[in-house]
Protein: Trimeric intracellular cation channel family protein
Amino acid sequence: MNETFEIPLWAGLLAVGVGAMQGAMFAAQFRDRRLDLLGVAIIGIATGFGGGMVRDIVLSEVPAVLTTNWYLIVATGAALFGMLLERLIARMGPLITVLDALTIGLFGAIGTTKALSLGLPEVPAIFVGVISAIGGSILRDVLLSMPIALMHVGSLYAVAATAGATSLVIMRSFDVPVFLAATICVGLTVGVRVLAVLFNWTLPEQRTISGMPKFRRP
Structure:
């Protein structure tokens, strides 16, 4: 393993903490679901852990969140903090979107660098980065019995994650320092996701071919 790609503990804790806080804030918005304290905390923790768990399972490694006590402590604290401040922060609606985008960016950068550190080629490394980025949001939506945001028009979750992960891989191929490359990756991911929300950027909806074109005989 190239030590340049070793993920510092603070970076992993930051990603988990932001993800858990955002997940709890998101869940606490749904008053009709009547979620209790434990329910909101579980959804927050699952959001914070989801991306890293998926990443490490794909890479056939022991999940990083199980290697130290700090991950669960930070995730629980961040989830409770997000839940308690939800009503105050809800007045600043865009903040949840920004935190969501930041979660995607952090996990995308960590997942991509970890995949590269294990010697994966560039394209599989990007794939690992993307699924790491979106894993938490998928688990969050499943636990809330909601349509998975990733699969609907207007989310651009995967597009933002792919843009960030691809930029990181390209920069590392030119020996850009890993911290700088990861920072740019996170910034690009957040930028694409936030701009997509602000300007309603979407991918084309699915279409079916209703019939084969007809050609007139001369």
Notes: The longest helix spans residues 94-117. The chain has a mean pLDDT of 84.
